[in-house]
Specification:
Elements: E1 2-3, H1 11-21, E2 30-33, E3 41-46, E4 52-57, H2 70-80, E5 90-94, E6 104-108, H3 118-124, H4 130-146, H5 163-182, H6 187-198, E7 207-209, E8 218-220, E9 226-229, E10 236-238, H7 240-248, H8 274-285, H9 292-315, H10 326-346
Antiparallel strand pairs: 1-2, 2-3, 3-4, 4-6, 5-6, 7-10, 8-9
Helix pairs in contact: 4-8, 5-6, 5-9, 6-9, 7-9, 9-10
Length: about 350
């Protein structure tokens, strides 16, 4: 729906900045909120000549340290734009908070749609295209993990060693700082944090890791392939196997005894199993996936911490909760902790 007062943006100031800094766009714009997600304020903008672009800034309110880093996203799409990893074209970055209260950036519009639920799959991806889409999904991640960050100007994106330890520290800090506003704590969050720190596998070569790779952060084209990967705000350098595990986590395993969630995107008929995708990735990258379950357990715990932080912002009224199922969000936090604990208990 077209909006005259886009949340978080001083319309006249932003359009004046774009006029001076982005030659390919001609304000004024028609602003349309892009639905989905619970964090950054993202709008499609259409200029007076009909050209489309996307503008993105952090949510309003006090943020966790280093969260919603627009400069990081900008650096990523700028470095990846000419590689085999599909990203929108970088158009302009503003680091002057006087314009609209926060840093923001503008990227090119890419045709395609994210997938959030079963209805999206049924409406946008015919069953005959789903294996092709799964192949594209895992192949794009393999392409990202095949890039040498030093060669594409991202060698200083983050520390190259100790990724899991750094992630545990980051997301445990997020959990701790969100306990009070979320009005929610769970002893398993603390027990699992200790387990992961005590049992970290040796890390392979550092690669760019997306950190939240899934169909919700991709654009799916009509031909059943990934046309763009978006939402790079928590991307850094680290262990590609942790990134792979996060991406594989929602996919159904070949174990028929595990219940299939009828609403899950990757549970829809026509998509292959988690094992199929892991094998395809392993063949493409020649990486050893023998400890994949450790990484999946870690990512279940991490997911609980991520949702916990989002839940805390809603509970603190930093973002409107209209239309948001807070009961389900609470359940997802607990469910991820339970699944992480179950996997850890099954590790050899």
């Amino acid at each position: 729906m077209t909006e005259m007062n886009p949340e978080g943006y001083k319309l006249k100031a932003v359009e004046a900045w774009v006029k001076d800094h982005v030659q390919s766009l001609s304000p004024p714009f028609t602003w349309t909120h892009l639905p989905g997600g619970h964090s950054n304020l993202t709008y499609q903008i259409e200029d007076r000549k009909g050209k489309l672009a996307v503008i993105r800034r952090p949510p309003r309110g006090e943020l966790l340290p280093k969260a919603h880093d627009m400069s990081r996203e900008w650096a990523l799409i700028s470095a990846l734009f000419d590689t085999d990893v599909p990203v929108p074209e970088p158009l302009g970055f503003c680091e002057d908070p006087s314009i609209t209260g926060a840093w923001f950036y503008i990227m090119g519009f890419v045709s395609g749609n994210p997938l959030y639920n079963a209805d999206d799959v049924h409406n946008l991806v015919p069953e005959t295209n789903r294996k092709r889409l799964a192949n594209s999904f895992i192949d794009k991640l393999a392409a990202l993990h095949s890039l040498n960050p030093d060669e594409i100007g991202l060698g200083e994106l983050g520390k190259k060693e100790g990724y899991i330890a750094r992630q545990v520290k980051t997301w445990y800090r997020s959990w701790m700082s969100s306990i009070e506003p979320a009005q929610l704590d769970d002893s398993r969050a603390h027990d699992l944090q200790k387990f992961f720190l005590d049992n970290i596998p040796d890390q392979e070569l550092a690669r760019v890791v997306h950190g939240d790779y899934g169909f919700h952060n991709t654009l799916v084209g009509q031909d059943g392939t990934i046309t763009a990967i978006v939402d790079w705000e928590i991307s850094t350098l680290g262990d590609p196997l942790a990134d792979l595990a996060y991406a594989l986590m929602p996919w159904q395993t070949s174990d028929i005894s595990i219940p299939r969630n009828p609403e899950a995107v990757t549970a829809q008929f026509g998509f292959p199993s988690r094992e199929y995708l892991a094998e395809r990735y392993e063949k493409t990258t020649s990486r050893n996936l023998s400890q994949l379950n450790f990484y999946i357990a870690f990512n279940r715990w991490k997911s609980a911490a991520i949702v916990h932080g989002v839940y805390a912002r809603y509970m603190a009224n930093q973002k409107s909760a209209d239309g948001v199922d807070l009961i389900k969000m609470h359940s997802d936090i607990i469910g991820n902790l339970e699944e992480s604990e179950r996997i850890v208990d099954s590790l050899p």
